[in-house]
Amino acid sequence: MTTRNRPLSPHLQIYRLPLLALMSITHRITGVGLVIGLLGLAWWLCAAASGPESFAAAQGIIGGFFGKLFLFGFTVALFFHLCHGVRHLIWDTGKGFELDKAYLSARIALGATAILTVLAWII
């Protein structure tokens, strides 16, 4: 057998993924994050229904640094998933498939995510 000196395929560290690919991947990740966040919400509601001691313990966890970080991540995931879902609804009408419009809508979705997250945390 002879070995050929063929080039190997580069790994993902070499490629720079385009914005549209990163948006698609992030949409899937935020969907999983929303499920985890909803489990946290269900835990908080069960603690509230279980009595004042359980609710105080849950509030202590959520009120801490990691709890607030979790809530912030959930908020970002919620608004990103919402804005990207609106993009998909627009695509379902057959509009926005041109590459320049797809990139523009991606940037608008990212900006709307940031604005909605900041507004939610300020209000």
From TrEMBL:
Its cofactor is heme. It is a multi-pass membrane protein. One of its GO terms (molecular function) is metal ion binding. Pfam families: Sdh_cyt. Gene3D superfamilies: Fumarate reductase/succinate dehydrogenase, transmembrane subunit. The heme is bound between the two transmembrane subunits. It is found in: Membrane. Part of an enzyme complex containing four subunits: a flavoprotein, an iron-sulfur protein, plus two membrane-anchoring proteins, SdhC and SdhD. The complex can form homotrimers. Membrane-anchoring subunit of succinate dehydrogenase (SDH). NCBIfam families: succ_dehyd_cytB (TIGR02970). This is Succinate dehydrogenase cytochrome b556 subunit. It comes from Magnetospirillum moscoviense. The lineage of its organism: Bacteria, Pseudomonadati, Pseudomonadota, Alphaproteobacteria, Rhodospirillales.
